[in-house]
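Hi there, hope your week has been kind to you so far. Thanks so much in advance, here it is:
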Amino acid sequence: MDVERVGGGGSPWWRQGPPWGDSARWPWRSTLLVTVLVLGASNFASHGQPDRLHLDLFGRLLLIAASVLLLWRHRYPVWVAFGTVLATVVYVGAGYAYGPVFVTVALGCFSAVVAGRRWAAWAALGVLWVAHLLISHWLYRWLPPAHDHVMPWGGELAVATWVVAVAAISELARTRRDQWARDRAERAQAARRRADEERLRMARELHDVLAHSISVINVQAGVGLALLDSDPEQARTALTTIKAASKEALGEVRQVLDTLRTPGDAPRAPAPGLDRLPELVQQAASAGLTVELDGTPPRLPPGTDLAAFRVVQEALTNVVRHSGSRHARVHVEHDPRELRLRIDDDGPATGADARGSGNGLAGMRERAAALGGTIEAGPRPDGGYRVLAVLPLKVTPKEDDR
């Protein structure tokens, strides 16, 4: 990904730093290491090239200047690339011995490419090659050392190959860094998406648990208050039902919260499933709703079993809260491919938010969609209301986010 910028905000083009690190940090250690390497190796090379000038103070200052410029390669990559090229051209033009003098140019241009200033790095390498070509084939007549000879074209080809190699390695490093940055961003996005999905799942669980239990508690509290004076025994029964419903709700909420606190751990209690339909019928009866069961649930995968239970629970809760009928029917049927749940009641809708127009119906649809199933809910032509859920028995897991 090319990060070159034209105009607009941000740092000026000559100060564009690398996108992956903190440009305020000074690369002291690497610069010191390069300086020692270049000075030591160049001094050794000067003894092996008697036809070139011996390395003196001016030559060492040029090598030091080119190396010290690398301290700013993260802050001013463009200036460092051209500055190292200038110091190297002066060093070669002064007739000093060849050695690792081009290392500083390679690092300066490498930093510029990785920082996104590709044009500057390529231009600096081009200036170096053209200047070396002029010095070794034309200007050598007037430059030290005396009686210098033209460089063979084989040597010039080696310099050109070195320039291309530096550019290619820099481009490869830039491409890899961009790919790593994209991978990190994708992994972070996937982690955020999984966290959002987990929060939604927990919200659905808490809603389903609390909505059903609180509906039962609300109905029984009304019964208890109405019969407190006239029928204390019946009021006591209502209070007992409230106690049982609140205890069960607290247990399920605690289980959900334990899973939230320790992700990845196995739950301490099994998740509810359709084997607990008789409990739902009993709870609905305590809230004044008669439920007729039809059909036998099959053995289901844990996720499908929990979703089916929550769908029936939410549908019965909506009947208690929003229907004028006190009778509901739950029909369960299945074939080798799918499970079908049908919950009917005969009463007219009551209340402004009749039939679960809030989070309950949306939660049911999200549960079904997560498994590849569907939820249909609406009034029946002959009156009443119907919730129809179709859930696949073989759930194909979603591809893992990477």
User: Anything to note?
Assistant: Residues 153-227 form the longest helix (75 residues).
